Amino acid sequence: MTPLRTSHLLIVLIVLLVFVCLFVKCDHEEPTNTNGPVLPNGRWAGDGACLSVTDSGCNFVAGCGHGQFPKPVIRPDGTFDVDGTFRIEVGPVSIDPPPPAHFSGSISGSVLILHVVPAKTPPPETYSLTPTSDGTCTVPCV
Fold first, then answer.
1. How far apart are CA 45 and CA 60, in angstroms?
2. What is the pLDDT of residue 12?
3. Long-range residue pairs from 24-33, CB within 8 A, at least 24 positions apart, any chain
4. CB 121 within 8 A of CB 90
5. Bond before 122 cis per omega within 30 degrees
6. What does pLDDT average to in each consecutive run of 10 residues of the chain (142 residues)?
7. Which of 2, 62, 110, 128 could form a disulfide with 49, with the two C-beta atoms 3.0–4.6 Å apart?
8. Helices (H), 60-125
9. What are phi and psi of 9, to 5 degrees?
10. What pLDDT, on a 0 to 100 scale, did the predictor assign at position 10?
11. So what's the pLDDT on residue 33?
12. What one-character DSSP code corresponds to residue 13?
């Protein structure tokens, strides 16, 4: 083979190898489960907090704090993670978009453990919630 043909063949093999590696990586990435079970609709309360879950999303209240996030997909081990927003709503409520927050937790039997990690204040908190009657959660401090 001529040096030009050898280098051309080498380039073709490298490009092919890159495509194969990308295909294999994409094929083995953890899929985003959008069709799995989601947090069931209802109202959860405990530790001075309330979480109402509807088809349109989740509304969380703890004291003067108010958070919202989409219904999370529950993994087979009962855990979930989802991003949303959380802010303290006391006094004049800001018209600015609410700051981001991360919500995670687990369901075991009839207990929902919810971890709330706001991007700003207040500090992260963990709540233990159990199912209660239907209804919405209200923010008592507005």
1. 10
2. 44
3. 33/73, 33/75
4. no
5. yes
6. 54 40 38 68 93 95 93 95 91 79 96 94 92 78 65
7. 62
8. none
9. -65, -40
10. 46
11. 43
12. H
Taking alpha carbons only, the member of 46, 49, 47 closest to residue 63 is: 49
Q: Say if CB 108 and CB 78 are below 8 A apart.
A: yes
In angstroms, the Cα distances linking 36 to 33, 69, 75 are: 6, 17, 7
63: alpha, beta or left? (left if phi > 0; alpha if psi -120 to 50): left
Whether the Cβ atoms of residue 115 and residue 107 lie closer than 8 Å to each other: no
Q: Which residues make Cβ contacts (< 8 Å) with residue 48, sequence separation at least 6?
A: 62, 63
| Cβ atoms within 10 Å of 89's Cβ, excluding its own | 18
Nearest to 68 by CA among 56, 54, 84, 52: 84
> How far apart are the C-alpha atoms of 7 and 16, rounded to whole Å?
14
Measure the N-to-C terminal CA separation of the chain; round to a whole number of Å. 80
Residue written as tokens 């969380």?
Answer: 60
Tokens, residue 24: 């294999």
Dist. CA 137–CA 122, nearest whole Å: 20
| Nearest-angstrom CA–CA distance, 113 and 42 | 15
φ, ψ for residue 27, nearest 5 deg:
-70, -25
